[in-house]
Write a structure and sequence with these properties.
By secondary structure, this protein is of the alpha/beta class. It contains 12 helices and 8 strands. Strands 1-2-3-4-5-6-7-8 form an 8-stranded mixed barrel, surrounded by 4 helices. Helix 4 runs parallel beside helix 6. It binds ligand C2E and magnesium ion (MG) (3 copies).
């Protein structure tokens, strides 16, 4: 039922069962016109290098300022777009827009790190996914080394062989592959060493509970050790406090992302942010982690 699905889904599924169909239809229509009227925006969230204090990459996160439904999280409308077969149009738009933004920031010397874009399972399984991405890079002029693709654990599990070879092609081109929301996919770990991914993103649910729950400390520490052994970098997601950051630094975590450093920002705000911390954010003199 709608209650069990949590607060994020209430917007669309609070209606009784017999109204669900027409509700979905409204959303479908709204998504359609959002695509055609260019209503989406992209917010960029910094990913910090915990050693240098520099912004190493930014994650592109889609935003839908929508009058009819109010603020709607991508966690709601992206799955709906997937279900309705609109995800590829939306994704192509995000990819191209984010690449263009990256090119502009490079040209204006505002930011020259990687731009990370989220891909969902359906897109990765498109037979022409390599051509699509290559085409956008050529069209926009973003170098492949400046692009990262974020893929969730679940996506891998759905078709490991096929997805693996597509990802290997991307890696060979110089594109980075980040495994998103790591630790939440209920998958076997045995596939991980074979995956052509270079970065693991520890899901924010483990970072959130670092103090409340000892088991999250164990999980975060274990993921960090495993990544180190596999030669992968780690980005801790959802870092909101100095203590979380200090804990992660002590455990040798290389990168972090979260409200503590910066929220997802529209381009103008990110530009200000990037200029302000050009001299690097000093992470060393912040409160020490005390467990
Ligand atoms: P994600 O890729 O795991 O993105 C991280 C989410 O965590 C973002 O939510 C971000 O705003 C949020 N976040 C960042 N720092 C913090 C923090 O310190 N605390 C907390 N509590 N949250 C933080 P957002 O922007 O609502 O996006 C949700 C999900 O929607 C994303 O999860 C991603 O799976 C999906 N998504 C967003 N944009 C796109 C897109 O362009 N394409 C696709 N396919 N999926 C997208
Ligand atoms: Mg992501
Ligand atoms: Mg994530
Ligand atoms: Mg997520």
């Amino acid at each position: 039922s709608s209650k069990r699905q949590g607060r994020n889904t209430i917007n669309f599924y609070c209606a009784e069962d017999d109204q669900k169909g027409s509700n979905s239809l409204n959303v479908l229509n709204a998504l359609h016109s959002a695509i055609h009227n260019d209503e989406f925006k992209i917010a960029y969230q910094p990913v910090m290098n915990l050693q240098s204090g520099l912004v190493e990459s930014v994650e592109a996160l889609i935003r839908w300022p929508n009058a009819q439904f109010g603020y709607t999280s991508p966690e709601i409308f992206i799955p709906l777009a997937e279900k309705f077969g609109l995800i590829c149009q939306i994704s192509d738009w995000v990819l191209e827009k984010a690449c263009l933004q990256g090119v502009e920031w490079r040209k204006n010397q505002i930011f020259d790190g990687r731009i990370a874009v989220n891909l969902c399972a359906r897109e990765l399984r498109l037979p022409n996914i390599v051509e699509r991405i290559t085409g956008v890079l050529e069209k926009t002029g973003l170098p492949p080394e400046a692009l990262a693709l974020e893929i969730t654990e679940g996506t891998m599990v759905s078709a490991p062989d096929k997805v693996g070879s597509v990802l290997q092609t991307f890696r060979n081109m110089g594109i980075s592959i980040y495994i998103d929301d790591f630790g939440t996919g209920y998958s076997s770990l045995s596939y991980l060493p074979q995956l052509p991914a270079n970065v693991l993103k520890i899901d924010k649910s483990f970072i959130e509970g670092l103090y409340q729950e000892e088991k999250n400390v164990v999980i975060a520490t274990t993921i960090l050790q495993m990544a180190q052994n596999l030669g992968m970098a780690v980005i801790a997601e959802g870092v909101e406090t100095a203590s979380q950051m200090q804990f992660l630094r002590k455990k040798g975590c290389s990168h972090a992302q979260g409200y503590y450093f910066g929220e997802p920002m529209l381009p103008a705000a990110f530009q200000d942010f990037a200029c302000q911390i050009k001299s690097t954010m000093d992470l060393s003199d912040r409160t020490d982690y005390t467990a």
